[in-house]
Structures are given as structure tokens and as C-alpha cells.
Amino acid sequence: MFAVYAESFHDDDPLAGLVLGDRPEPEVPDEWTTVEVRAAALNHHDLWSLRGVGLRQEALPMILGCDAAGLDPDGNEVIVHSVIADPSWVGDETLDPRRSLLSERYQGTLAERVAVPRRNVVAKPVGLSFEEAACLPTAWLTAYRMLYVQGALKPGDSVLVQGAGGGVATALIALARAGGLRVYATSRDEAKRARALEIGAHEVFASGERLPVTVDAVMETVGRATWTHSIRSLRPGGAVVISGTTSGPELDDAMLSHIFFRQLRVIGSTMGTRDELAALVALLDATGTRPLIDRVLPLDQARAGFAAMASGDLFGKIVFTR
Ligand SMILES: NC(=O)c1ccc[n+]([C@@H]2O[C@H](COP(=O)([O-])OP(=O)(O)OC[C@H]3O[C@@H](n4cnc5c(N)ncnc54)[C@H](OP(=O)(O)O)[C@@H]3O)[C@@H](O)[C@H]2O)c1
């Protein structure tokens, strides 16, 4: 079958190891099923994989992609949950030390078909297109858990979203607005700041610009470039929820004095559970909030999508269709 896969790792030039071509049909163990992929979304995770972060050399070649929406063997429209827990694990699968995401241990979604455990499919409502549904399993689920599970934010609370243009960041802005939060966002780019206002931010600022208020929580996916600003922007007792470090994990100043003196909380967050994905799907179905899609490309033009993400030239999700 046709697939988009990583053949080798290149830290400086991730696209050098990206191949579009033929791969074997997925193996389907007991208790697993196959999904015919109609749409699959790109995540920064796929670029990290091509750089050799989170993917082992022995696992190559590996079909990339964590997100998919498509048809199960009975023709039902489904969304794929990407977190694969150990079969013996009970409870929140994001806490299973042996968990993996599709495309880490098991072949990913940028292909004609993908195999997943049966419990990893969630029904797709008819009101969501395949393209919209494909945006949910990684970026949107991560944003949902950051805001409402790890961040425990309630209507009326205030939140700052760093780096407005990204897949997770656009999800954070739209979901925060849908949940009744007061939403502030930053971006390096003026046009992206204007778009952030259109999708739900109340106020936008240049990266690093001081906010007029301090906020209850900051949503961090940028890391080194925004960390100091995130810590400075919190009210005493506020929380920074972090799920990524796009600009790098090493900090010039961790702001430790600020953190203890103002009694701030630093909370990690990663992906979400199957039940949280189902709750997110229900939220979108009920509210009409929809994922922001930067562009839709045929899967055989995936290289252009990877290049756009590598250069930061996007606002929202890049989706591939067949
Ligand atoms: N833990 C998890 O479960 C999980 C799940 C999903 C994603 N992630 C991580 O979250 C991060 C974002 O993922 P994504 O798929 O949303 O990526 P993306 O679509 O490529 O977004 C990258 C964002 O980072 C911002 N950015 C990049 N460099 C910056 C810099 N030097 N200064 C300020 N902002 C900068 C950009 O903001 P502007 O261009 O607007 O300034 C853009 O919004 C990645 O590191 C990814 O690995 C983690």
C-alpha cells in the first residue's frame, strides 16, 4: 500500500529521510482492527521522528502519522485514538510507562490503512468531516487535556497561549474560547496574531510582549523561546501547563526564584485518554467549534506539508487525504 515513512534520521534536515512509496499491509494482531484512512493530519511529532527523537533506529522504516479518521471494516466512520497502552494496563493510558503513540512502535496513519487496538477507535459524528476529525487525536486532544484536565480551568478563568500559529496552539485558543475562558495569545507574526483574534483570542501580543494583566494559567508548547515570559505572565498561585518544547528544552533561566516565591505550579501534560477524545468529539459536536485547517493536500504531496511545518509556515493543521 502507499505510505509516507521515515527511512533514516537527519537532525539538521529532517525531510532528507522522508520517503513516499510502497509499504506492506499492516499486521493485525488479536483484538486489533484495521481502519481505511480517509484523512490523516500532520503533527510536529512527525518532524521529531524524522530527527530521530522518540523513534528508535531499529524501528525503521516506520510509517509516520499519529492521527487518522476513516472507515472501520464494517464501514462505520471512526476516529483513531493514537495512544497505545500495554494490554495489561488499567486506567489512564497516558500514565502507562510502556505506552506508545502510533508511528513510534506500531506503524502510523500516513498510509492507505492502519491497524489499531479495537478500543482505540471512537465513533465520528456525521457533523464532523473526515478532515476535521483527523485533526483531533493528537493536537486537539493534547489541547483539551492541557486546559480542562491538567489545567482544571473553569469558565471565567484567564489563559495565555504561547505561539498562536501551531496545531496545538490554534486548538488551545478555539477550545479555551468554547469553554468560556478569557483568552490571550502571542505570536511572532502579525498576520498570525490577527488570525488568532478571528478564532477566539480576546487579545493578542507579540512574542515576549508584557501582558496588561497576569493570568490564571499559561499553555506552553514552545519551550525555551517563551518560558521566561510564561512564568512572568502568571498570577501568584497560577499554573503553567507544558506539553512541548518546539524551540528547545534547555532554558536560559528556569525562573526558579519566581516559581517558589509566587507559588506557581508547573504541570506536564501529554496527549489524552480515549475517554477524553470521546468527550472532545462530543464538545465539538455540541458547540460547532471546528479544527482550524491550514491546508488539505493529497497524501502523495505530503512532502510539501512537511516542508511548510519545518519552516513554521502554517496556521492550524495540515491534513492529507486520499
Ligand atoms: N506532549 C504531547 O502529547 C504533545 C502533543 C502534541 C504536540 N506536542 C508538542 O507541542 C509542540 C507543538 O506541536 P504542533 O504540532 O502544534 O507544532 P506546530 O504546528 O509546528 O507549531 C509550532 C508553534 O511553535 C511556535 N514557535 C516555534 N518556534 C518559536 C520560537 N522560536 N518562538 C516563539 N514561538 C515559536 C509557533 O508559533 P508562532 O509561529 O505563532 O510564533 C507555532 O505556533 C511540538 O513541540 C510538539 O512536539 C506535544
Describe this entry's structure for a reader.
The chain is α/β, with parallel strands linked by helices and 322 residues long. The chain folds into two domains: 2-135 and 291-321, Quinone Oxidoreductase, Chain A, domain 1 (Alpha-Beta Complex), CATH 3.90.180.10; 139-268, NAD(P)-binding Rossmann-like Domain (Rossmann fold). The chain contains nine helices and 18 strands. Strands 3, 5, 6, 9, 10, 17 and 18 form a seven-stranded mixed sheet that branches. β5 and β6 (77-80) form a beta hairpin. α3 (136-150) crosses α4 (167-178) and α3 (136-150) packs across α8 (274-287). The protein starts with a strand and ends with a strand. It binds NADP nicotinamide-adenine-dinucleotide phosphate. Residues 43-45, 48, 138-139, 142, 163-169, 187-189, 192, 207, 221-222, 225-226, 243-247, 270-271, 309, 312, 314 line the site of NADP nicotinamide-adenine-dinucleotide phosphate.
Short description:
Helices cover 26% and strands 26% of the residues. The protein has nine helices and 18 strands. The chain has helices at residues 44-50, 130-134, 136-150, 167-178, 190-198, 227-232, 256-261, 274-287, 302-311; strands at residues 2-6, 18-22, 32-41, 62-63, 69-71, 77-80, 83-84, 100-101, 113-117, 121-123, 158-161, 182-187, 203-206, 215-220, 234-242, 265-268, 293-298, 317-321.
